[in-house]
Amino acid sequence: MGSDDLLTAASEGVVSAFSLFSGQFLATFAAGLSSIVLARLLGPDGYGRYSLSTTVATLLMLATDFGVSSALTREASRLKGRGEVEKVARLVGLALCFNLLVSLVVLAVGLALSRQLSLLALRREEMVELSRLALPLVVTNSIFNLAYAALLGLGDARALSLLPVVRDVSRGVLSPLLALSSGCEGAVLGLVLGYAVAAVAGVALLWRRLGGLPVAPWGELRPMLSYGLPLYASSALSTALGAYQNAVLAWFATDEEVGNLKVAGNFFALLQLLSAPIA
To answer: pLDDT tens-digit profile of 248-276?
Structure first.
């Protein structure tokens, strides 16, 4: 590799890194700012209920991906390096079909058992309807994460920086607007719609990048699961711990206390934006 090639690679690396940082910065800023606005609209009690509403959906998300996203990142990067873009497109199409099918089944089970799951996880009768309203996140979050993983494997820095911004700006605009007329229910619906917009955007970016998403034979899913399942175990544990923390808060803290805690966390996330560039 000559000096010109090294210079070009270095320049591309700097541009990619700046794109990713800018996207993450804007997404975090939009999410933090909108959460503060939402907390002002809903009050501490309402924001506490809003924060707990995704607990059941988060638990159900554990049964959706099974490491396919991690395997897709690896395969997309490996096949792209070989110039086999058509095969990447088929694997992405297969992974999308798998995640969509599994997440829809999990969503159906969650809707059927929403009352029991809500009472088991949160022990609050008033949270049953809010938890049910948030359940479509099981599907939209699964598709969003898969699209992000595929774009990561393809090395598309601009798309990777754009997706979180689309997600957080969409929910940051929709949740407060809907909360004005429908309170907590509107805020949760805005959150779900924000993730839906981001999931559609992710699939659209993949379609444009790959020129279509044909579906590979289902037999090619087995090696992806074999590779991804061990990796999925660690991320599933982290997700489960987050849901468990919310459940414990619901058991022992009031809505107002939960709301104040979550708002403090949002302020901390905004403060980190100032320290991260320095670090």
So the answer is: 999 999 989 998 888 888 777 777 766 65
- Work out the widest C-alpha separation in the chain, in whole angstroms: 67
| Burial of 231 per CB tally in 10 Å (0-12, 13-18, 19+) | middle
Neighbour-count burial for 26-49, b at 16+ CB within 10 Å, e otherwise:
bbbbbbbebbeebbebbebbbbbb
H helix and E strand count, the chain? 10, 0
Nearest to 154 by CA among 92, 223, 67, 220: 92
Question: What's the CA gap between 167 and 165, in Å, rounded?
Answer: 5
Say how many C-beta atoms besides its own lie within 10 A of residue 268's C-beta.
Answer: 10
CA distance 117 to 180: 29
Q: Quickly tell me which residue has 């809500």 as its tokens.
A: 118
**Nearest of 167, 202, 266, 254 to residue 175 by alpha carbon:** 167
| C-alpha closest to that of 96 among 224, 7, 278, 189 | 224
Task: Give the single-character DSSP code of 279.
Answer: -
Give the pair of three-digit tokens for residue 60: 């159900």
Query: What would the two tokens of residue 221 be?
Result: 């899913």
The number of beta carbons lying within 10 Å of the beta carbon of residue 2 is 7
Please state, as a whole number, how many other Cβ atoms lie within 10 Å of the Cβ of residue 274.
8
Kindly tell me the sign of the dihedral angle through the C-alpha atoms of 102, 105, 111, 116: negative
What distance in Å separates the CA atoms of residue 260 and residue 124, rounded to the nearest whole number?
A: 19
Measured CA to CA, the distance from residue 202 to residue 192 in angstroms comes to: 15
101 in Cβ contact with 136 (< 8 Å) = no
H-helix or E-strand spanning residue 149: helix 137-154
pLDDT tens digits, 167-200: 999 999 999 999 999 999 999 999 999 999 999 9
